[in-house]
Fold this sequence. Notes:
Structural class: mainly beta
Shape: elongated
Helix content: under 10%
Distance between the termini: 58 Å
Largest sheet: 2 strands, parallel
Amino acid sequence: MGLEMEKLNLKMKDISGSTLKEVNAEGVNFDDINLSKSKVNNANMSGMNFNDIHAGEMQFTNTNLSGTSIQHANMSHMRIDHVHLFGTEFVNIVLPQEGDGNYDSDGNYKPIVFNNCDLSNMEINNCNIKGLKINGVLVEELLKINNFDS
């Protein structure tokens, strides 16, 4: 398939409901853009950098995100399904702070859940594990029983 080369410079445009199919969009810069409820299927998104994002209703299917960096993101209520995570690092993962959009002063947040996952060789270091359960068992209690500091 031969692609026609065209550089677009869109500013202050509403392209809601548009479809991009069989498009090479390597090196595209999205700045101050609303991609809510967007779907990305069968895409190579390796090496992308997401900064200051809210990814609540985006869907990625058959998508290569290897080498991708995500910083300052609100990924609350996201569902991640059938994903390869070997070599992935989660750093400075926090609950919303006062002033953040999803902040709840009572701390009533839905739990983060891993179901039917292979967590072989997983490491948890220097993390707050208060309330962490594995198969319904509080890890804090297991550590106390075995004389480990949590």
